[in-house]
Design brief:
Layout: H1 4-8, H2 19-32, E1 37-44, E2 50-56, E3 61-67, H3 75-89, H4 91-97, E4 99-104, H5 109-113, H6 125-130, E5 147-149, E6 152-154, H7 159-171, E7 175-179, E8 188-191, H8 196-199, H9 204-208, E9 225-227, E10 230-232, H10 236-246, H11 261-268, E11 272-277, E12 281-282, E13 291-296, H12 297-321, H13 331-356, E14 363-365, H14 366-398, H15 403-426, E15 430-431, H16 434-451
Helix pairs in contact: 2-3, 3-16, 7-11, 10-13, 12-13, 12-14, 12-15, 13-14, 14-15
């Protein structure tokens, strides 16, 4: 497949498109190329927004790409924005792929709208954190597919997930690309099958664009590595077994969500699912495997867990003061309680794992120090930002607010100040051009398709 010209022509995007802009672009594309592009709605969001899908090509195999499964992750939306136009404008390339393409620019429009405050910049850690929104696990498109595993039974897919399930049932894709991205760090991948021929080809792609691999801590401790920065697709079953081993005998009381899109697709058919996690911000330390002379892996992890406990306690304390002002079904409230509970169980599991495994006494690699210190501080900046973001949305709806809400807003902003200063004292960072991120995401897709 000759895709070099596709990569070379990616525009120099300076901002992320809003949901309205993505929808308008899809309608315009279908209008300009009615003979090759079909635009249809696979369903509606909980707020009633259509979830649009572009169907392009008529190859014998089916490929599904969907963006914004987590609404704070719009890199994939720009990837689909560009790639859909390539397929429409170059039917010879579309035929060469051998696929019928199903492309969704935004599978969670409601949540994505809540992130649009940072989509046009400035692209700083602070601006991102102040306008960050991500729903609780049981309200995420990616993690609300049905599952029955041991004592865990989840059968409450949200409307967006139901729409995606219906499409997967109809399409039965051979290739599925769930377009995620990380925040601060390096590039890493999840893949649903142990295909060394595919993922070995990934390793050199980020380096072409000057980006490091993420060689420090995995996203979750239960991740199974295939190769450096490449992991087996994360599953709810893996989470369950990890918590069962290190926290309690019945993790069904801890896990409030369902299975992933990959878990569902591979019950329906035989699908290769790929996730390429890309950062907005990076520091070269993320792939430095030099051993630290001062910090052990155990000490780095314990510092990580200590921050998780302190920040969780702060958020829970502030939320308790606001219980009479914020409805129980408020999505920010749900997420704050969800993330503090999840991080609490993760901290307990990690501490038990550290206590039971003497290999954590070795010197930490510099990339592990980065993830446990600066990377973890960034994560808690985003989670802390949910508090003032929630209150700012209330102010926008209602005008003046009760004193308790204004005080909580100030407390949240003060906590953000502290975390921002802490991360600034640890590392510098660079903002990655959107064009590079789209190029890496697309090139990984083309590489996987070549091997398939």
């Amino acid at each position: 497949m000759n895709y070099s010209h596709v990569i070379e022509n990616i525009p120099d995007y300076q901002e992320f498109l809003t949901v309205a802009e993505l929808d308008a672009s899809s309608k315009e594309l279908a209008s300009c190329y009615p003979e090759s592009v079909e635009l249809f709605s696979i369903g509606t969001s909980r707020a009633g927004h259509p979830i649009y899908c572009l169907k392009i090509g008529n190859g014998p195999k089916h490929a599904l790409m969907f963006a914004c499964p987590h609404p704070n992750e719009p890199i994939g939306a720009m990837t689909v924005e560009y790639f859909s136009r390539v397929l429409a404008e170059h039917p010879e390339f579309t035929r060469e792929t051998g696929y019928t393409w199903y492309l969704i620019k935004c599978v969670d429009p409601d949540g994505t709208k809540r992130n649009e405050g940072w989509f046009k910049g400035p692209f700083t850690l602070r601006n991102y954190a102040e306008h960050y929104y991500r729903p609780a696990m049981e309200e995420q498109v990616e993690w609300t597919f049905p599952i029955d595993y041991k004592n865990l039974h989840f059968h409450a897919p949200i409307p967006e997930t139901q729409a995606l399930m219906k499409l997967i049932d109809e399409v039965r894709p051979e290739f599925m690309y769930s377009l995620h991205n990380a925040g601060f760090g390096g590039v890493f991948w999840y893949i649903s099958k142990n295909r060394p021929d595919i993922y070995r080809a990934f390793a050199g792609i980020p380096k072409k664009y000057g980006l490091p691999l993420s060689l420090g801590e995995p996203e979750m401790a239960c991740c199974v590595p295939y190769a450096p920065a490449v992991y087996q697709m994360l599953s709810t079953e893996d989470m369950y077994d990890y918590y069962e081993k290190y926290v309690c005998k019945d993790p069904s009381a801890l896990i409030t969500h369902g299975a992933s899109s990959d878990g569902y697709a591979n019950r329906v058919g035989d699908t290769l699912t790929l996730v390429c996690e890309l950062p907005y911000f990076y520091n070269a330390q993320v792939d430095d495997e030099t051993p630290s002379k001062t910090v052990t892996k155990k000490a780095a992890l314990l510092k990580n867990m200590k921050m998780a406990q302190e920040c969780s306690a702060f958020l829970r304390s502030e939320m308790e003061k606001l219980s009479e002002y914020i409805p129980e079904n408020n999505p920010y409230r749900t997420m704050i309680y969800n993330i503090t509970a999840m991080m609490g169980q993760e901290a307990e599991a990690r501490m038990n794992q550290v206590a039971q495994n003497p290999e954590f006494d070795r010197p930490a690699k510099q990339c592990e120090v980065f993830d446990n210190f600066a990377g973890n501080t960034f994560n808690w900046m985003t989670f802390t930002g949910l508090l003032p973001h929630m209150i700012a949305e209330e102010r926008e709806k209602n005008g003046t607010l009760p004193k308790a809400l204004e005080q909580a807003y100030e407390a949240g902003m003060k906590k953000l100040d502290e975390l921002e200063k802490e991360i600034a004292a640890q590392v510098d960072y660079e903002v990655i051009p959107i064009r590079k991120l789209v190029a890496i995401q697309l090139e990984c897709a083309f590489t996987a398709l070549e091997h398939l």
